[in-house]
User: Fold this.
Amino acid sequence: MTEQSTVRVKLEQERGESRILGFVRRARRSPNVIVGTTVLSLVIILVVLAPVLSPFDPIEQFRRERLMGPSATHYFGTDNLGRDIFARVLFGGRISLQVGIISVSIASLGGTFLGLISGYYGRWLDSLIMRLIDVLLSFPSILLALAIVAVLGRDLRNVMLAVGIATLPIYTRVVRASTLSVKEIDYITAARALGAPAWRILFFHILPNVLAPIIVVSTNGIAGAIIAGAALSFLGVGAQPPTPEWGLMLSQGQEFLRVAWWVTTFPGLAIMVTVLGINLLGDGLRDILDPRLKI
Amino acid sequence: MIRKLRFGNRVGLLALLMTVVLLLGVALAPVSAQQTELTIGFSFADVDSLDPGVTTSSGVGIMIGHVFDTLIVQNPLGTFHPGLATEWRVNDDATEYTFVIRDDAVFHDGTPVNAEAVKFTFDRIVDPALNSQMAFSFLGSTNYAGTDVDGNTVTVRFNSPNAAFLDGVSQPQLGIVSPTAVEELGEDFGFAGIVGSGPFIFESFTPGSEVVLVRNPDYNWGSEEVFGRSGPSDLERITFKLIEEPNTRLAALESGEVDFIDGVPGLDVQRLDEDPNFVIQQFDQAGHGWSLMFNQEKAPSNELAVRRAVNYAIDKETMVDVVWNGFGQPACSPLTHVMFGYDPSTCDAFTYDPDMAAAILDEAGWVLNEETGIRERDGVPLVLEHYAPDRPLSAAMAEFVQADLAAVGIDFQINLVEFSAYLDIVRAGEHNTQNWWDTQTDPDGVMRTLFHSSNADGGTNRNRYRDEEMDRLIDTAAGIADPVERAAAYAQIQQKVNDEALMVFFEDPVVIYASVPNLEGLVVFSGGFQPNFYAAHFS
Assistant:
């Protein structure tokens, strides 16, 4: 009996190791993951090293050099106030990544918690939470975010909160669905029979088994959040000028589209490349971790 | 065989004929449609109300100037001509204005235009319930003492002399409204409908989209001296497309969607000027240009040293190049340089001198914190909270000023907010600074709007400046009939404004219009600012 259980534990450990190894092996074969990771790493390196790489301050105005095209001094040219667009794009990346990561953290933490308790306890709590989620889902998420920021006021922190709240329902639904199937598995019944408290079952037995979809949804969610954040700034409810935010740069450059294409083109490209990198990585992860999940 | 061929020929001929007719139709259609329908790309997209008594937008004034008639009409050169009043008299001390109202004019709803309607219009404006600001200023604000009716004449009385009233009464904000319509529409007057006696009848207003006016076929009382014509307009319909974004407006003109635009972006003027498909017109703008107001009731903008320092710290010359692409000129006074009463010596008051700004702040005890780069006094940082509506120009001005003020250790915090939220904030006096821009033709309106205490409680005087001496100066200047004396009185006001550094004057603007070349008969009032399309037609 004891010997047998030791063997089983060993087997499980081996299987666990091989699962990680298998994940890495499959990830290395997935072109999506490779390209996505490369692009994203590059973006992160550029953004982290912004103060080193950028020759100029992002809000410094070189007024005599306004609206100049890309050159050896100003790699991406300058905007209407003579600010270096290369510097603004690099520093803007810090803001966009921050918006992406923080709002997804808000959405995934909140959404996961709600999804877990909703799926595990069921009954009226489930109904209550899911109806609330249905209400949130009945608004297009960008509209909901817009409304939240309009109420809270124009500020980047509010944008993160708004995007977080607006995308929270997706996480709740995904986690609830997984929780519903996981909680019927025998080892949960066993844990319950052994008298494990609910919080222990939820966070130590169920949560690890619903992590895969959360990771996949979160990765793609960051891309969505970056776009949503930029869209809100573009619409004038996000970052305040002179913040080098990509969406705001796009919005301010509109006026000069005919005479200075570079003012809008580079922040636009920056959004595209970053979001593409994240999406490729997200799709690759989905294929590996949870091929059934289609979002 | 031959028959068949002939049949084929006939079919061919018919097809050819049809093609020609079709082509002719296509070629002629836009021309004939263009001849009577004018579409305008209009920059003033924020319509607070179309009620002349209520609106605080000079842009709305342009649109409703076609719907409402004024008692008298001021031509672009500043002389006055009969409008709804056929003649008028001013008593010696300019406290009583008597107008004889013409007897053949009717409002669009059939109500006759008479002396009672004039009295109704003016008394309505001073009714506190209407909360009128702009029209209230034109009517002399608290100086207005009432209107008396005697048959077809009205006498407008003032408590003290008001030399500016002929100018005021020719502004669209004092256009005569139909009493019947105001009573019928109640709160909806200005939104669901407006009824005047002008050459165009209001058809519809779609917020954020368009204002549509149609021809008044019964219009027979236009000022021939001003417009060069009378009777109904040649245009059947005028559509003001509300397009706030300058490039979109320009694109609308270039794609043929609109025939006329205002606020042409400076960067595109040269290109359009060289293009034979478009005509550019430029005017030095009258009234007041772009400026910065300081809230006198909130620290630290209530402090003279801070206001003076800001005045010295801003490089206006470069600002005109950067923010207005070199169009216009640096401003020195609340009056633009083309205005009556403008004092050129105001340009000596503040020159660009950041060292001077720093010295003034040092002396006032604002010490630079080397770590933050912001000055402090008793641990309080030198912060100015700036509020502006979210528009490209507001952002550019604010960012420019922010950089110049940062250079002397002032933290200029930019808060761009949605237009109605902005109005709530600045009317409540929560700002340190906000921008102002205005266009008028008489200096009294400008000074009263900006510095008279009667406008300081949430009104247009968002400097929240209350000074008995200033009130007295403004009221006195308004009553002086002799032009030389009156100009001297305004020079004294401008002196006081700069002595107390009440505002920062950024730019005296130029107004730039572009249109298709065959649009003719445009009359531009109000120092280039108020285009009027009554006499316009396509050649």
